[in-house]
Amino acid sequence: MPQSSTKPFIDVLSGQHQAVPPMWMMRQAGRYLPEYREVRAKAGGFLNLCFNPELAAEVTLQPIRRFGFDAAIIFSDILVIPYALGRSVRFEVGEGPRLEPLDDPAKVATLAPHADFGKLEPVFDALKIVRGALDPRTALIGFCGAPWTVATYMVAGHGTPDQAPARMMAYRHPEAFSQIIDVLVDNSIQYLLAQLDAGADALQIFDTWAGVLPPTEFARWSVEPTRRIVEGVRAKVPDAKIIGFPRGAGAQLPGYVEATGVNAVSIDWTAEPAFIRERVQSKVAVQGNLDPLVLITGGAALDRSVDDVLANFAAGRLIFNLGHGIQPETPIAHVEQMIRRVRG
User: Fold this and answer.
1) Rounded average pLDDT over 192-213
2) Catalytic positions, please?
3) Residue 136: which residues within 8 A CB-CB, separation 6 or more?
4) Per DSSP, what are the bridge partners of residue 139?
């Protein structure tokens, strides 16, 4: 696994403090960039873009060329695992993902236990291309969706405002729901290991919907599966650097960090700073947590918000990022303003 002490992003994950925090943005390869929109149009569809190694590598590298971020994250999607498990996955313009729903135990019984990783070779090929093109100081991030979040889409067949279908199924049919989670844990471990083998320096586990779970369910469906993934990856790659992002976890973050063993945790913009400093950043690096809407706003509000993040967290181990993905309508000039402010 290519790792170097000359990568500021990896240094922070390894326990070092950086006077100027390394930075990248979630969804940094995306629709706010005109060059991305050109490539997306050429690809002819979202999954086509994910599974074209040359084009996926190109859009991964675009924000690095434009902004000089300290890390690139491979362009892909959290739903490639269900796709590799043989489920129907498609993306409708303006509507998001559509899957065949696994909304009762009889349907769950049809779920394949093992993914066809041959279907994901284009992702690994894209990682190799990006690895070869990156400056040695720039880290490369691989990722997967956390089992809970991926399962919410698999159960409902699409995104919902509060992921009620998956929550209801977990209450009504916990054994069947556990089967989905177990399949996702096992295959996510293999997927992340393959990404490390293809050149990723670090990994992020996105649990976008962790915040909708009450504490007992959060421990069962978010924390425990993530712990198993971290453990499974480190059984093969003991020094694997892993970031968790249980969005909306709030007061449950200290327990998540302790139980999962992640090297860093990504925090959203609602996180209470003193609590994070005392209970979380004292244990691991934190990543975040600028509000994506203030990045759209720009001006004095953006300067104040960047300064707040730095004042709250830069004395400890910090990776500067947004509290969630960048929005498509974000002006490029505001991203440049943010970078100048962080880097002085």
Assistant:
1) 98
2) 27, 31, 40, 77, 153
3) 4, 6, 7
4) 71
Q: How far is CA 343 from CA 9, 70, 202, 337, in A?
A: 14, 11, 23, 10
- What residues contact residue 125 under an 8 Å CB cut-off, 6+ apart? 53, 198
d(CA 144, CA 129): 19
| Residue 306: closest CA among 286, 321, 326, 287 | 321
Residue 278's H or E segment, with its range, is none
Helix (H, G, I), strand (E, B) or coil at 43: helix
Q: What is the DSSP letter of 213?
A: S
- Per-residue pLDDT, 51: 98
Q: What are phi and psi of 205, to 5 degrees?
A: -110, 110
Render pLDDT for 237-256 as a digit per residue (tens, 0 to 9): 999 999 999 999 999 999 99
What pLDDT, on a 0 to 100 scale, did the predictor assign at position 93? 80
Q: Give pLDDT tens digits for 223-235.
A: 999 999 999 999 9
Q: E strands, the chain, where? A: 71-73, 89-92, 96-99, 139-145, 202-207, 241-246, 264-266, 285-290, 318-322
